[in-house]
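Justification of computing resources. Each target in the renewal requires a structure prediction run like the one illustrated here; the chain below, 185 residues long, is used simply to show the kind of job we budget for.
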Amino acid sequence: MRNRISSCPARYAWGRWRATRQRCVTEGAFRRQRAPSVSHGLMSARSTSRHSLRERGRRRAHLTRDAATIASVGRMVVKADWIFTGSSGVLQPVSGILLAHVSGWPLTAPWLVVTYGFYALAFACWAPVVGLQMRAQRLAQIAAESGQPLGPEYFRTMRIWFLLGWPAFLSLIAVFWLMIAKPPL
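Resulting structure tokens:
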């Protein structure tokens, strides 16, 4: 009997082992799969946790309705978004494609093609969100410097920001599910 963890005659999928001898020729393929898998998972977890922490801080600042606080937190959120979300947005697809290749999945597998679409939708929502964050931060900075309350332009910008966040979030949840389930489509 072979050890399922150290040998590579099968692929793990939702608690069952399916034979895929043609995809996994040697045990080395399993070992090569571990590094991209671990780095891909860590980037996903880091991106999700950093995003929730940033957005919690932004939401708490927004609820104060204090322009100076919002401007200060907004500067940090914009920087963090570029550093963490931007880098994950580039590195995750690269590591995901590498992981699919090393695992033996064809890059045109239906579940991977759907994943590409959801990832593109998330990026299409994220790009304007960064611009909206910078705009909201500038509007809060102007209001803080002039001693004025936040104007309707700021609140309209934040509403659009919030509405664009949902499709991006749900798309990335769908990507995460597709990567785990690998459903036959």
